[in-house]
Structure formats: C-alpha cells, structure tokens
Amino acid sequence: MGLLKHTPGKTRIKFCGLTRASDVDAAVQLGVDALGFVFYEPSPRYISPEMAAALIGRMPGGMDAVALVVNPSDEQVRRIQERVPLTLWQFHGDESPKRCQEIAQGLPWVKAARIQPGFNLIDFSLQYSQAAGFLLDAFVEGYGGGGHVFDWSLIPDIWAKENAHRVVLSGGLNTHNVGEGISHLKPCAVDVSSGIEIAKGQKSPEQMKAFIEAVRGADHSAASV
After folding, report:
1. Does 56 score more than 90 pLDDT?
2. Among this protein's residues, is 123 annotated catalytic?
3. Which residue out of 16, 64, 191, 219 is catalytically annotated?
4. Which of 72, 100, 194, 205 could cross-link with 147 by S-S, CB 3.0 to 4.6 Å?
5. Residue 138 is part of a domain; what is its CATH number?
6. Which helix (H) or strand (E) holds 185?
7. Which pLDDT score is estimated for 148?
8. How many domains does the chain have?
9. Is 180 exposed, middle or buried (0-12, 13-18, 19+ CB in 10 A)?
10. 68-102 burial, b if ≥16 CB within 10 A, otherwise e?
11. Per DSSP, what are the bridge partners of residue 112?
12. Taken in order 141, 145, 146, 151, is the CA torsion positive or negative?
C-alpha cells in the first residue's frame, strides 16, 4: 500500500477527515491506501495530535498516515511531530516550498493546488517541485475544498499525463463522479472526505465500500478499453 505508489491500472485511495476508531477500523478492513487526519482547528473534522496518534495505532504498516495542516505554527508542528507517527504531510495553506520542506523534515509531502480559472498549475508545480504529490482540489473561500467539484478540464492534458504518478484528485468526489474523474485525469490516487460521510467527521461504512467499488470499476473499465 501507500498513497503515492504509482501502479498503472490501480488508483490508490485515501479517506480523509477520520475522527472515530470505528471508521478507521472499517477503512483498514476495506484495504484503503491512506487515511488523513485534520489538524486545522476551524475544521469540523479537526482532531488533536493525541487522538490522531491513538487512531493511527489501529492502522497496519504500509498504510499511509497523513497529516493535513493549514499554515501551522511552529508549536502546532512540534506537537504533531512529537506525538503523531506520520508517514506523509499534506499542506493546504499558503506554505512556501521552503516551509513545507522545513516542516516535513525528510518525510514526503503533498501540496494542495486550489483549482479555479486562471490558476497556473504548471508554474505551481515548478515552484513546488520537491513535493511528492499534488492534490488537486476546488478553490473556495477559506481553506479546503468544502466538498465542491472543480472543472477537471482546467487541468492541462499534457501536465496530467506527465504528472500522473503524483496526482491526487480531490474536491467533492463521491461514488457517482469518481469514475468520471479517474477516466478524465487518470490520477495516481483519489482523496475523499464528505463523499463518504453521514455527518461531518462521521464516515459511513456502506459509502466507504461503495466508493472503493466505484474506483475499482473505473480501473477495470480503463483496462478494458
């Protein structure tokens, strides 16, 4: 497993915004590649480093434990680094490339690109060239995608092809649209949060399973073309 282990024909899956042990256990049973934990206090999915550490303790080796942060302070970073056994950082704020490198301290990291008309993804990816991956999300006021889908046609075809091994598609994905997103962009991985929830921070085992089935269906369809 591993979120950014690029395997042609198999889209990796990340569930984000986990807050409950039962949801972590369900995700582990379903065999997803990564779980994300939100360390941004204004988010309804925020959990403390201590709680995240307890949840990560329920995960098997090989499954990525991802820290989602937004412009974290040095103190916030220190608490996460001291308490949470992470394998991957995910930056959703205005962190500079240098700041991302400083926080990650050698761990791989992903930078969120907030896609909207006029966003220059090519310049962005050159600026953040040290990133292990780029998470493509919808632009909204504030931070995070807010469960909104962005216009996938805004992603240049040649960029998507050249960066497929490190593209994580996010932004309002659910069982009904993830197949189309995979078909359009052929990302390394997909990232879902609200699309598998019954309430913010509370996942549905049935929706988790259905989402995975939709991803595998899209992979199968692509392989048969």
Report:
1. yes
2. no
3. 16
4. 194
5. 3.20.20.70
6. helix 178-185
7. 77
8. 1
9. middle
10. bbbebeeebbebbeebbebbbbbbbeebeeeebee
11. 135
12. positive
Mean pLDDT confidence for 34-50: 96
Which DSSP state fits 205?
H
23, 33, 64, 137: which is the annotated catalytic residue? Answer: 137
pLDDT tens figures, 99-139 = 999 999 999 999 999 999 999 999 999 999 999 999 999 87
Q: Is residue 5 part of a domain?
A: no
Q: Which residue has the higher pLDDT, 222 or 82?
A: 82
- Evaluate if residue 20 carries a pLDDT over 70: yes
Q: Give the Å distances, CA to CA, from 118 to 15, 71, 91.
A: 29, 23, 21
Pairing of strands 109-115, 88-91: parallel
Q: Does residue 163 lie in a domain region?
A: yes
Has residue 132 been placed in a domain?
A: yes
Which of 67, 78, 80, 144 lies closest to 109, judged by CA?
67
| β-sheet bridge partners, residue 88 | 66
- Catalytic, 16? Answer yes
| Domain carrying residue 57 | 12-224
Cα 46 from chain centre? 15
Q: Which amino acid is at 70?
A: V
With respect to residue 6, please indicate whether it lies within any of the assigned structural domains: no
CA atoms within 13 A on the CB side of 53: 10
Averaged pLDDT for residues 187-202: 96
